[in-house]
Write a structure and sequence with these properties.
With 195 residues, this protein is of the alpha+beta class. A 4-stranded mixed beta sheet has the order 6-3-8-7, sandwiched between helices. The protein has a 3-stranded antiparallel beta sheet with strand order 5-4-9. Strands 1-2 form a two-stranded antiparallel ribbon. The termini are close together. It has a single domain, classed as Alpha-Beta Complex (Nucleoside Triphosphate Pyrophosphohydrolase), CATH 3.90.79. Helix content is 21%, strand content 32%.
Length: 195
């Protein structure tokens, strides 16, 4: 599994327990807002989120290992970037902001689908999200924010499929759900590896 060039580490604080997330119903209609920490308490309260799958010019997917500081699924491997739009922020603004904050990259993004999932992480809380899923490409050098990202790597599609089968517990629940749907419904949009 290939590693990108190493750039100087950044340590910007870009996530706050008090940031206002957008509460939604199952049709994605806004219902109000609530601090992020409250959204993730107990079984979780349904809120709007996004997941990005970013490929490089060689057709490899950028995976990240979540920071050890994360409340939910610390040090688990996941898709390139995932987060939440903040109150008063459009989804387009949110996805591009977060790519820069977390990975130091930019990308054109293609919306694929929305879905709802709920997953509990022991006694630490839950994700309960209506998640917008996007596909993108970027050749920008990765400059991860170490407050958000513990590690990262680029992986060929065949390697992802194999590792998800062999090491499923190492990955976040949303990554597994999203990748399965991307492979079954949007495989024609995935790049062909040039490696």
């Amino acid at each position: 599994m290939a590693r990108p060039a190493v750039l100087p580490a950044r340590r910007e604080v870009v996530s706050f327990p008090s940031e206002q997330l957008i509460l939604v119903d199952e049709q994605d209609h806004e219902l109000g807002r609530l601090p992020k920490d409250k959204c993730h308490d107990g079984d979780g309260i349904l809120h709007r989120a996004f997941s990005l799958f970013i490929f490089d010019g060689q057709g490899r997917l950028l995976l990240q290992q979540r920071s050890a500081q994360k409340r939910l699924w610390p040090l688990f491997w996941s898709n390139s970037c995932c987060s939440h739009p903040r109150h008063g922020e459009s989804m387009d603004e949110a996805v591009h902001r977060r790519l820069q904050q977390e990975l130091g990259i930019s990308s054109d993004l293609r919306f694929l689908f929305k879905f709802i999932y709920q997953a509990r992480y022991g006694d630490h809380g839950s994700e309960h999200e209506l998640c917008w899923v996007y596909l993108g490409r970027s050749n920008d050098p990765v400059a991860p924010n170490r407050n958000e990202v513990a590690d990262w790597r680029f992986v060929d599609i065949a390697e992802i499929d194999c590792d998800l089968n062999a090491n499923a517990p190492a990955y976040t629940p949303w990554m597994k759900l999203e990748w399965e749907r991307i492979r079954s419904e949007f495989g024609h949009l995935l790049p062909v590896s040039s490696a």
